[in-house]
Amino acid sequence: MINSLSGRFLVLTVIFVMLAEIFIFVPSVARFREDYLLTRLERAQIASLALEADDMISPALEAELLRNAEVYNVVLRRDEIRQLALSSPIPSPITATYDMRVPSSMTLITDALKTLVDTEDRIIRVIGNPVLDGGLLIEVTMDEMPLRAALLDYGRNILLLSAFISIITASLLFLSVQILLVRPIKGVVAHMQSYAKAPEDARQIITPTAGVRELHDAETSLQMMQQQLTGALKQKERLAQLGSAVAKVSHDLRNILTSAQLFTDRIEASDDPLVKRMAPKLVNSISRAVNLCESTLAFGRVDEPAPSLSRINLSQIVGEVIDSERLATGDYPLTFVQNVPTTMTLRADDEQLFRVIFNLVRNARQAIMATGEPGEISFVADEDDDSWQLTVEDTGPGLPQKAQEHLFQPFQGGVRKGGSGLGLVIAADLIRGHGGRLDLQKTDGDGTVFMIRLPKEDAALVSAAE
């Protein structure tokens, strides 16, 4: 109970209400003491009027008047003359004098607290102003114990009333917290527990219903998170199914391509000049297809294989990509511009780097051909002390906004209708495997620019391979 939200609200409410009552209690007690003493002064003044009406009163009547006023004697000052109006024996010396004519609030509070704390039977003198201009000053002597008893009784009543108010207020707040906060929070927790049992089931996603704005915002945020998680789980399941299917297709395709490799051996022995010129390209294409199938099967088992690093000629790799893409363009007016030094060598995996450049160029070619306008794809290579850079630039229409937002996310960054968006994902993963980066430098209506950056440091390459 005490560890619950409503239970803690209950305890805190009682504490705060009692603290508030304490701040009210002290001034109230001080005011009660002031009223008590002023009442005794008024009674004493009324009793002294009997003496003015009849100068000679009996001792019994005087004692009765003092007893009714609850004082021992009364001194009334008129016209600067101090007159003992009524008197009786005082049982002990006077120990304190209180002036009630112009007391400050702090004085009243201090005197009230002293009266409550002091347990001795004291005789006190009280001075005040007579009512209705009945004189210049009135002074009485009285016992303090009845005053202390009245203060204690008054304070006890205030504390009991405060406790009652605290309990009623805390109970109302407890019920309010239960209805407005605890019950909706328990509903959210129940939704979360139900969703955790079957996160793939979209029916378990919470629907915001809370009337409290903060709780409604929390339910809305939870709904968005659950929707994203459910979508991610479904996509993960589809990817797993797709991976299994791709692995099966790659296995069969590898066997078919291996058979095709056997036929290329005889084709290379042909005396036809055209066949001799085209056969090496066919052999290279089939070999890459076989390697891709084997890599796909390896990816289905673990992850993209680590790059096999060696010294390769970048110009030759780019030339092979261009030759492959020219076959795909046919007679389409697409120009390839290669500005790569023929002597530039770098340390990389030639098969993986070919796939990266091929993916970038194929995307650029398809984007340009989709416009029906002539275009150009250019390659610019450079290097510095830290890395090698290859820039691939095209004059296509640029990437749409959705593709930019999900550029390197599988099945979300596709540009073409029906495209999977895997090309750039694979390319980025392969470059990261080399310890480098694949960045989108620019994309707009004038074209798109990608930059491949490969590090020269051995440590970066070793770390990436690991």
UniProtKB/TrEMBL annotation:
PROSITE patterns: HIS_KIN. It comes from the Bacteria. It catalyses: ATP + protein L-histidine = ADP + protein N-phospho-L-histidine. InterPro entries: HATPase_C_sf, HATPase_dom, His_kinase_dom, HisK_dim/P_dom, HisK_dim/P_sf, Sensor_HK_Regulatory, Sig_transdc_His_kin-like_C. Keywords: Kinase, Membrane, Phosphoprotein, Transferase, Transmembrane, Transmembrane helix, Two-component regulatory system. CDD domains: HATPase (cd00075). Pfam families: HATPase_c, HisKA. The keyword Membrane applies. SMART domains: HATPase_c, HisKA. This is histidine kinase. It comes from Yoonia phaeophyticola. The lineage of its organism: Bacteria, Pseudomonadati, Pseudomonadota, Alphaproteobacteria, Rhodobacterales.
